[in-house]
TrEMBL record:
One of its GO terms (biological process) is rescue of stalled ribosome. It comes from Sulfurimonas hongkongensis. It is found in: Cytoplasm. Monomer. This is Peptidyl-tRNA hydrolase.
Length: 182
């Protein structure tokens, strides 16, 4: 299984709402003592534990699919899980689904173009800005103080759900771990 967290590389983005996927991957690496693999040809940070690969594409969000496709093809991986921020869900929500549209999310759009839509999505709600014209600045801004207080518990919850995906069906994980807000 290839588990991908979407985000943007670099310290200026590390606490951004758009980087929640990277934050979950970092926690999965820590919890599972995942080993870093040489990954220069994959344009991403690649880790492995058990039979799972963890990937943080370093191509910036809009080109995430390039990195995902490279790892998927090289290791001949069938099952892909993509963890991403979702503006259509309130902060702290966790939802799961296979396939679907990209909803304007450029990381998903790139992934869909490179590996098709047939992958599991772990949708982490970040809420919406007040005005549609503020979407870019909103997703590229850091979580506020109130959100930050809940971040570690929310990330831990997402990790538990992802770890259950190997032994349980998507439907079971969805019914057990989906939350409306954390």
């Amino acid at each position: 299984m290839l588990i991908v967290g979407l985000g943007n590389p670099g310290p200026s983005y590390s606490k951004n709402r758009h980087n929640i996927g990277f934050m979950v991957i970092d926690e999965l690496v820590r919890r599972n003592s995942a080993q870093k693999l040489s990954s220069s040809s994959f344009n991403g940070e690649l880790f492995k534990f058990s039979n799972h690969f963890l990937l943080k594409p370093l191509t910036y969000m809009n080109l995430s699919g390039n990195s995902i496709q490279a790892v998927k093809n090289f290791y001949k991986i069938d099952e892909v899980v993509v963890i991403h921020d979702d503006l259509d869900l309130p902060f702290g929500a966790v939802r799961f689904k296979r396939g679907g549209g990209h909803g304007g999310h450029n990381g998903l759009k790139s992934t869909d173009e490179k590996i098709t839509r047939d992958y599991v999505r772990v949708r982490l709600g970040i809420g919406k800005p007040e005005h549609k014209g503020e979407v870019s600045s909103y997703v590229l801004s850091d979580f506020n103080d109130e959100e930050s207080r809940h971040l570690s518990g929310w990330i831990a919850h997402a990790c538990e759900a992802i770890e259950h995906l190997e032994a349980s069906s998507l439907e079971d994980v969805s019914s057990k771990f989906s939350v409306k807000q954390f």
